[in-house]
Design a protein that fits this description.
Length: about 450
C-alpha cells in the first residue's frame, strides 16, 4: 500500500511540473532570481557532476527560504569548526534564500535549487552531487527526497526540527504517506520537547532535543549600533516634552500592516490635528499628545511597494529606508524596505510588535529582537516559535496580547512607565544568551554520523 501511495504521489508531482514552470515565470516577473538556473529545479545542471570516488564528498544542507538560510549560516560556522575542509552543497527553494546563501559559500562549495519532488528530479540530483549526508532545516520534509536518500544509503537528518500542532494534524490526515516519510529519516534533532513528541508520534527517529539554533546568532553589532545612533539623533530633533517611542511592526505578514494602520486611525479618531501629524508640524507637545513614530518592516521583499502604497492609501506619509542617507526622514510611518538589516531596525526601535502573530500564521522569529534588547509584544498566534515565545514571556523580554488593539494599549502603558520598558529591554539579551548551544550540538551529531 505504501509503495502504491508513493508512486501515485510521484505521478502527481510529475504531472504538475508545467504548473511549477508557469509559477516560476510569474514569480520571476517580480523577483528575477526565480528565473535563474530553472533546469536545476528538475535535476539538470550546467556544471559537471561529482566524482563518485572522491573522499571529501559534499555535506548537503537544505535551507528553503531566507529565514532558514540565516539559521543555516549559524550552523555552517559550527560545522566548519567540527569538519575542517568540509565541502558544502547548499540548496534553496526561494530566490531570497538563494541570494542570501551565496554569501555563505567558500572555495569548493556549490549552490543549487532544491530538486522538485518528482522521483526523476530527485534521482538526478543525488546522482549528480552524491552527498555523503543531507541536512534538512526545521520542517522541510519531501516524500521522494526522503525515500530516494534512503535507497541510496545517504543519511538524511532533520535539524532544528519543529512541528506545530497544526502541521501534525495535517500530517495525520495522510498517515500512509506521512508516517513512512518521517520514519525513513536517519535522525531528527528537535528544538523543544513538544516538537520531539509530535515528531515521534509520526514515527520520526528523534535522537535529541538540542534547542533552537537561532539562539546562537549574534546580532550584527555595527547595524545594531547604527540603528541606536539613528534613534538617538532622531529623538534629539523632536520637540516633545515626554517620551515618544519608535514602535516597529517587525517581519509583518500580509494583512497585519492594515490591522495596525486601522488601529492607529481608530485611536486618533477625533484627536487634534497635532496628534495625527506629529510634533514636527505642531510645535512642542507632551507625551500624551504626540504619537509614536511607527516603523513597518514587511517579512517579504516583494511586498515593499505594496505596503508603501497601503500606508499612503490609509492617509499616512511614508519614508522608505532605501531613500535614507544619514538616517530616517520625517514621515508618519517609516518603511524598512531592505534585507539583512533587522539588527538595524531593532536598534532603531524602542519596542516591536511581532509579525505573523496577529494573524493565524504562527509568528515570526522573536529571538533576534530579544538579543538586540528590543522588547516584543506578540499576538495570540505563535505556534511556529512556541517555546521561544513562552520562554521570552517568562523571562520578561516579551508580553503577549490578545489583538492589535491591546498591543497599542501596552505601547501606551510602556510609554508611561519607561522603567518597565527598560526592564524588558534588559531581559532580552540575558534570555537569548541563556539558550545558546544548539548549533554546536548539531554539528557534533553530524560529525558522529559521518564517523560511523
Amino acid at each position: 500500500m505504501q509503495i502504491l501511495i508513493l508512486r501515485f504521489y510521484s505521478f502527481l508531482m510529475w504531472l504538475v511540473q508545467p504548473l511549477l514552470r508557469r509559477k516560476l515565470r510569474r514569480r520571476g516577473q517580480a523577483e528575477p532570481g526565480y528565473l535563474e538556473a530553472v533546469p536545476e529545479r528538475f535535476g539538470y545542471y550546467a556544471f559537471p557532476g561529482e566524482d563518485a570516488n572522491r573522499p571529501d564528498a559534499y555535506v548537503w544542507v537544505h535551507a528553503v527560504s531566507f529565514g532558514e538560510t540565516r539559521t543555516t549560516a549559524i550552523l555552517l560556522a559550527a560545522l566548519r569548526r567540527e569538519l575542517p575542509g568540509m565541502r558544502l552543497l547548499l540548496t534553496h527553494g526561494t530566490a531570497t534564500g538563494r541570494a542570501e546563501g551565496a554569501r555563505l559559500l567558500q572555495p569548493g562549495d556549490v549552490q543549487a535549487w532544491q530538486p522538485w519532488d518528482s522521483a526523476g528530479a530527485v534521482q538526478r540530483f543525488l546522482q549528480h552531487f552524491r552527498p555523503r549526508i543531507g541536512i534538512l532545516m526545521e520542517t522541510e520534509i519531501w516524500p521522494n527526497l526522503v525515500d530516494r536518500c534512503r535507497r541510496a544509503h545517504i543519511p538524511l537528518v532533520l535539524a532544528n526540527a519543529r512541528l506545530s500542532e497544526k502541521s501534525l494534524r495535517q500530517a495525520e490526515r495522510l498517515p500512509f504517506l506521512a508516517r513512512p516519510v518521517y520514519s525513513s529519516l536517519y535522525a531528527v534533532w528537535a528544538q523543544a520537547s513538544y516538537d520531539a513528541e509530535r515528531l515521534k508520534s509520526l514515527g520520526a527517529p528523534v535522537e535529541g532535543i538540542f534547542g533552537n539554533i537561532k539562539f546562537d546568532a549574534a546580532p550584527d553589532s555595527a547595524k545594531l549600533q547604527q540603528g541606536r545612533t539613528w534613534r538617538l539623533n532622531w529623538r534629539a530633533q523632536q520637540h516633545t516634552a515626554g517620551f515618544r517611542p519608535v514602535v516597529m511592526l517587525a517581519s509583518a505578514r500580509e494583512g497585519e500592516e492594515l490591522l495596525l494602520l486601522q488601529e492607529i486611525r481608530r485611536k486618533m479618531a477625533g484627536a487634534p490635528a497635532a496628534k495625527v501629524l506629529g510634533a514636527s508640524e505642531s510645535g512642542a507637545l507632551d507625551a500624551t499628545s504626540s504619537p509614536p513614530q511607527w516603523l513597518i518592516v514587511p517579512r517579504h521583499p516583494q511586498r515593499f511597494d505594496e505596503v508603501a502604497a497601503l500606508v499612503q492609501a490609509q492617509g499616512f506619509t511614508v519614508s522608505r529606508r532605501s531613500a535614507w542617507a544619514e538616517g530616517p526622514e520625517a514621515a508618519d510611518v517609516w518603511l524598512g524596505d531592505s534585507l539583512g538589516e533587522m539588527a538595524l531596525y531593532y536598534g532603531l526601535a524602542d519596542m516591536a510588535l511581532l509579525g505573523g502573530s496577529f494573524a493565524e500564521l504562527g509568528g515570526q522569529n522573536l529571538i533576534e529582537a530579544a538579543a538586540c534588547g528590543c522588547p516584543v509584544l506578540m499576538g495570540p498566534s505563535t505556534f511556529n516559535f512556541a517555546e521561544a515565545a513562552n520562554l521570552s514571556e517568562a523571562a520578561g523580554a516579551a508580553r503577549r496580547v490578545t489583538d492589535m488593539s491591546q498591543a497599542l494599549q501596552v505601547v501606551d502603558e510602556w510609554r508611561q512607565t519607561p522603567e518597565a520598558l527598560a526592564a524588558a529591554a534588559a531581559a532580552g539579551p540575558a534570555f537569548a544568551n541563556a539558550h545558546r548551544g544548539a548549533a554546536d550540538k548539531t554539528a557534533k551529531a553530524v560529525a558522529a554520523i559521518l564517523a560511523r
